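Page 42, continued from yesterday. The earlier attempt failed because a stray header line got pasted into the input along with the sequence. Redoing it now with the clean sequence only.
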Amino acid sequence: MKAARIAGRAGGGKGNPAALQPDNVSLAAPRRRPIRSGLTRQDRATGNQPVHSLSAIEAAADFVHGYLQPTAQHCWPLLCRRAGTEVWVKHENHTPIGAFKVRGGLVYMQDLKQREPDVAGVITATRGNHGQSIGFAARALGLRAVILVPHGNSVEKNAAMRALGVELVEHGHDFQAAREQAAVLAERQGLHFLGPFHPLLVLGVASYLLELFRARPDLDTVYVPIGMGSGICATIAARDALGLKTEVVGVVAENAPAYALSFAKGEPVSTNAADTLADGLACRVPDPDALALIRKGAERIVTVSEEEIMAAMRAYFTDTHNVAEGAGAATLAALLKEKHRMAGKRVGLMLTGGNVDSDLYLKILGGA
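This time it went through. Structure tokens are written below.
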């Protein structure tokens, strides 16, 4: 019944912007109640992460559902047989930008516009999905958005961001270099700088976990990919707010192990490179606030190889006919790696995105 109520709130009621095509999005969705995140002014300034209450997550979900329908969670028979257990896939690859991050962008940008109505615009760095999230939200709320990406970034993700009206700037050899330049340009141009991790991003993202946990409160374990940490921290926040005992397991790429190394050591550990086909996992400098929450609320972190990620991408297509980008498929890769450990468990997988360049995807499907 709870899941049905969530779906009902997001339906095509009068004036619901979810029915609009992207070219027509110009107004914020009417909020059914204020989003009271519990953030102090200092929290907003420093990015400190408070504990999000259930009422705050529900209010954020109400706002997000004005722009997008709740995504489905499906139990695919072939995938269950492959994994040897009951598996529920949360399809965040079916949002308007093909990734979960749109939820955090909407909540953050709405809060920013209320706090700083005269803000000139926002600037951030991304490998793709975070930039699409900010582009989608900026367009919906009438704000300028400048997005920095590293040279050699996904051609199709770049095109998707440009289609949302962002000003795309290419800089540096990786995400960290692009992020540092974004901070410089923010000062020069008087733009609001937004990093990839912030309590309001976590609050918005938690809306999809609210959907999942209310539909399937009986999950024993959920696997969540870790980029900069908003997804796994939102998972922990929603689980705790609902009082569930579900274990949360993070997933990183072996070629981008910063969070796994940091989790084991108990303090941020940076790496010199993060060279993985899974753009959403390509982190080499962990966020200290995110790490603190992960160490407190996650059971463990699993590392998966590039070969295991590609095999999981193929398995998703074979078993469900869904396109999964590298980060989105990493959770399945981790489950298959821990297949014997998970036997007899009820498992949730976050398919966090489906944005992968077609030429790369074709090579992966072909086994290259």
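Notes: The chain is about 45% helix and 10% strand.
Reminder to self: strip header lines before submitting.
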